[in-house]
Task: structure prediction
Amino acid sequence: MLQLYQTQVRSHLMLGTARYPSPAVLADAVRAARAEVVTVSLRRESAGERAGQAFWALIRELGVRVLPNTAGCHSVKEAVTTAHMAREVFGTSWIKLEVIGEEDTLQPDVFGLVDAARSLCAEGFEVFPYTTEDLVVAERLLAAGCRVLMPWGAPIGSGRGLNNLFGLKALRAHFPEVPLVIDAGLGVPSHAAQALELGFDAVLINTAVAQARDPVQMAGAFAQAVEAGLAARAAGPIEARDFAVPSTPLPGTAFRG
Result:
């Protein structure tokens, strides 16, 4: 089970809800992924009253938990205001906190992120910060009251996988008890399996599923990859070596004279 604040979930795969071809495809993808948590942008779902009602009907039918996000926010004030609105609209204290600092890479503004996290945690929010793999930033976010961290694998929507393996491994090693969810940049199921093998607790996928040729099939593939990554980690993979090691031991091997 995965512990997220006071909530336990079985699935280690979360799905975003943006950019799917249709609500029906989204629903089928969530089921295929066996996801229990989906993220949703307040700005998109509240754009029209009728669209918002239809989305809520879909969420109720799927029986999943909503993690609202502050996507598109570029300042502390904007992110905090959006979080307050999301709590009213969605009726949850969960918030995926995004404060974007750079347009081309959509890299988090980690300074604004820490400020916004401190403010929201003090007001009773359970904050899931979209951050980098920086250890100092992680320390500041935890000190601000966050109990879950969501480091990026690569820029949002890039599909590049885990760009900084050293940094991500260091983050996992420094915070062994903190739930860490890889958020952004994963492109194929093998990226998700790798993240779980490295010890991360879950992955959040949106573009790689929603924009696949067959989103439902891709969602199922990610679900299998997450299970494979978890199983491999539990099995205890061997360490990488610089030299070959014979799989057949030499003692007792028959040789012709």
